[in-house]
Amino acid sequence: MLNRTKVSAVQNSNNVCADIVGFDFSNYDDKDIAAVRSYWLQYGVVRFRAAHITDQQQVDFSRHFGEFVIHPKQLQEGGHPTHREILVISNVMKDGKPSGALGNSEATWHTDTWFYERPPAGAILRAIEVPPSGGDTYFLSTYRAYETLSDELRKAIDGRQIFFQNVYDKTGKLRLGKSAPKSRDFREWSGIVHPLVRTHGETGRKALYLGGTSEGSWIVGMPLDESSDLITKLWEHATGSAAEAFIQKWEVGDIMMWDNRCTMHRRDSFDPNTIRIMHRTTTAGERPI
Fold it and tell me: Which uninterrupted H or E stretch holds 193?
């Protein structure tokens, strides 16, 4: 008898997301998980509409996709009171302090924790409470970004590596455990070097790897001005076409699951007088090659 699963996927009009249909978070088996994983690897981003699961169900489901990664913000304001695996993203204030991480500011395009030696493979984000408008999340394919490069740009980055400083975050704040550097040249700071074009550890496909910001990034071995110009062109190419992005307009209970190795995402700002609460789990990845 053939092993069958009721799980299927419906691709959105965009090249980077599909809706998972037929998955029951309270009753699934290994075949169902294998199907979800297959679609996740195929599309880069998958969505579960109105799943309405519990924190424990999110943790249990996430565990099938790798070891948990503790996001830096979970060690600060984003920790969950009972599930250490969950990052709480919230703009709600409690006793004068944030009750979660990231608040309501606009998030620019990025891959998650690109400044790690082993950036996470996947993230699973669940909507607990959403504002009436704003706070949408955008996704794009970095496979697509690489595959649509001009011959000139592709030749310019062939075999190149990119350095990311890991001392300051995108808001200019010192990262946890870091001290202000003495040198003004960020290339002399603590950081990590990754390939500018990474090969996905499971699919074998190549993806452009730009991290999370052009500032504090340097293409190793290039004069700084040439590196900055080339990085700017690569960012403009990767993020310049709105038609390439999938837009998730959140509803309570929605779950987005993305492959951090081949996608980038960003979030819109929203009215700070409204509430946005999300619960996120993160799974471990390999060092980019």
Answer: strand 191-195
CA distance 287 to 102: 26
d(Cα 220, Cα 186) in Å, to the nearest integer?
12
User: CA 147, CA 206: separation in Å to the nearest integer?
Assistant: 8
**191 neighbors 180 (Cβ within 8 angstroms):** no
**pLDDT at residue 73 above 80?**
no
If one compares 175 and 138, the residue with the highest pLDDT of the two is 138
Which tokens is 231 given?
Answer: 């990085």
Closest CA to 18 of 268, 204, 211, 263: 263
pLDDT tens column, 251-276? 999 999 999 999 999 999 999 889 99
Cα–Cα distances in angstroms (integers) from residue 42 to residues 7, 11, 77, 260, in the given order = 15, 10, 34, 13
| Contacts of the segment 11-14: beta carbons below 8 A, 24+ positions apart | 11/43, 12/246, 14/244, 14/245, 14/246
Pairing type for strands 87-90 and 8-11 reads unpaired
Task: Compute the distance between CA of residue 289 and CA of residue 276 in angstroms, rounded to an integer.
Answer: 36
* Domains of the chain, earliest start first: 1-289 (3.60.130.10)
In the beta sheet, which residues pair with residue 168?
Answer: 174
- CA distances for 264 relative to 57, 212, 222, 287, angstroms: 26, 9, 25, 17
pLDDT in tens, 157-213: 999 999 999 999 888 889 888 999 999 999 999 999 999 999 999 999 999 999 999
